[in-house]
Each structure stands twice: as structure tokens, then as C-alpha cells.
DNA sequence: GGATAGCGGATAGTGATACTATCCAGTTAT
DNA sequence: ATAACTGGATAGTATCACTATCCGCTATCC
């Protein structure tokens, strides 16, 4: 497959394919001459993964690169890959962490996971993100919303067991790795879309019952 | 309160406060002279809301403007506000919707909500986002992940009942409106952070049990 | 075998976004 | 009086994710 065919088959414009090549998201094709190279289905597959992570998962190009580096690292154990995916999703950390209010929120976040018995890495970016959200809710005087946290935690714990089980059931490492990444990123997209739909249904149902 | 005090109290730089004023995110202060104006706690509160939506909720400035316009519209019924918040979160829609694969995914999305008996607006952006994610999972050969959809739907439905109940319990409209917005946007941040933590815990637990 | 379409690689340009800086004439505080 | 600050306007900057163009070379079709 030539680069133009790769572009056509994937629906990604040729300059953009070249850009991903330059950025190291897409491995170079097998060179068959000074200015000719051959691409195959693995490139096509990779390109589709890149687009899905960017478009659906809202990852940045830098985030995609991070994730793919981890995916391609055959040594990396599974849960490290998951951590990498989480870091890539997290993007650039907020600037104004560190005030006393944030510190308190951060401790609350740590307490929440500790109370559940969750064993997570002390510096997991999600812990900081949770603290960000808790601090924001408190600062805005919406702390009654924190009553939801238990429900969220229980639901996500139950779901995680299913998700991880689904991925582990696959057997071979390569497809587990891809499943982990897509499950994390695209699964999040599915979950948030469903949450919005559920909210819409529920709020319409409670404010104006069917008639 | 003068603009510089507003800046200091909120931790938002003065040029940025001016920028939000220009962009219409922050209402103008009460003018007390040709070049002097007075700001109060409502401005401070609004400024904090803006920062939370941008930093924690990952909304764009344009998205924040949309949400705030809806918040300030005293006429708008509650579930319309929710729809507006969802649209603002959704951001710019993807370009490549419309292919047969996407259409099929979109129908599947519609079927999922119909099977649950959810009554949602036919053109809800979340329906398109769900279709995006489903189409991407299929395209990447990860359709076994779609087995999670039921679990997600059930969990989000249960959570939505709690969330909406919490907001409705407040009584006065103004605080319900703010609760709706912050609950939607910041609640999403809390939920996704907890999901990542739950995943990390579960995947570590299943691959290397405590010892 | 000669035109021409396409190639890989390099470099530069574009448009959107979210600020950030500077300037100004006018006002307030010391 | 003078220094600091004000609201308002305009212009500049950094980053991101592409997009366009140019080059000398090659593959392919007639």
C-alpha cells in the first residue's frame, strides 16, 4: 500500500498522514527505494486507532504518542500501561494546586479511595483530578453534591471489575493491550454519553411526567 | 470591590478578568464614574464558576458563555438548561459522521436508549457522541467492549436519579440551576476520576494479588 | 522513452484558542 | 502634585493541529 492509498483507505488527508509520520505516531513504511515506501494493514489499523483516540477520546497528539509508546513497549506490565493511558488522558495538570483548600481536597480524595480499600499509586493523576473537582465543588458552595461520591465510587468499582475481566479474557497480550487502551479511552466516552442521556431522561421524567 | 481586588481575591490575573469581561462571561461592574466600576461578591462567585468550568470541566470559553447565558435566562425550564450544558460540553461535533458505519452506530445508540425506555431528545448531542464511540469500537475490532454498555447504562441511570433528586431537593430555582450545571460538569470530572482509580485498583488486584 | 503523476522529506504557513501586554486619557489616593 | 490605578481599546503571543508548498527523484502509462 502506498501512502496515498493509506490516506484514502483511512479517510485521513495525506498531509495529515505525513504529519503523524513526522510526529512518530505512525511508524515509517518499509522503504522500497529512495523515495518510495510500502505500508500495510498494521499502519491502517494504527491510523484508525490514532483518529479514535484524538476524535472520540479527546487526546492530544502528544497524549496519543505517549499511549502508543506504551502500547509498543512489549516489556511494560499491564497496569503500567493503564497508568500511562491515564496520564495521557489527564493532559497538562492544573496550575493552581497547592493552596490549603486544594490540599484538604487532595487529602479527602486520598481518604475516599483508602476507605474503599482501593490500592492505587500514590501519585496517580486521577487522584489530583478528583481533588480538583472536590475543591471546585467546595469553593462554589456545592458541597452537597459530594454526597454523590459514594454512589460514583461503588458504580465505578463494579464496572471496573467487568471491564478488566473483559480485557483479561482475551488471552493474548497484544489484544489485551489494545483493549486496555480503547476500553479506557473509548469506554469513558461511552460512559459519559450514557450519563448525559440518563440525566436528560431522569430530569425530564421528574419535572414533567409522561402524559 | 475594584477590578484589581476582584483579580486578587479570585486568583485570576487582571488581564484575564478583563478578557472575560470583553467576552461577556463576566457581567460588567456597576459604573461609578467615567473609568471606575464597582464589583461585588456575585462577580467573584461568577468568576470562580468560570474557572471551575474551564479548568475542571474542560469547557472552552465559548462553551462557558453558552452555559452562562442559559444560567442567566430566568425563563428557561430546567431540562432545557441541562441540554444547553450538554451542548456546551460536547463542543464542536466530529466531521466524519454520516458514513454507513456511523449511521448504523447511531441507530444502535438510539436502540440502546429506546430499550431502556429513556425519553431523550432525538437530536441530543450525547446520542451522536455515543454513536461516535460505538463506531470507533467497531472499526477498531473492539466490539466485545460493547458488552459493557448495559452495565454503563444501568449504573448511569441509577446515578442520574440520585443526582437529579439532589438538585431538586434544593428548592429555589437559582441554586437548582447552578447545581444542575456544576453537577453535570464537575460531577463528570468526579465520576471519570473515580473510574480511573477503580480501574487501577482492579487491574492491579487481578494481575498481582496483595501479598 | 518521454511525459506526468506521485513519492518522501523538509520547511513554512494557517486558523483557532486563550490568554497577555501595552497604550491611553481620566480618576483616586497620598 | 504626583504616583498608582482605572476602564476600554488594540495588538501581540504561545500553543496546537494541521495544511501547503517546494524539492529532486521514481514509477508508470502510452
From TrEMBL, chains A, B:
GO terms for molecular function: DNA binding; DNA-binding transcription factor activity. The keyword DNA-binding applies. It holds the Pfam family MerR_1. Residues 1-70 form the HTH merR-type domain. It comes from the Bacteria. Keywords: DNA-binding. PANTHER family: HTH-TYPE TRANSCRIPTIONAL REGULATOR ADHR, REDOX-CYCLING DRUG-SENSING TRANSCRIPTIONAL ACTIVATOR SOXR. This is MerR family transcriptional regulator.
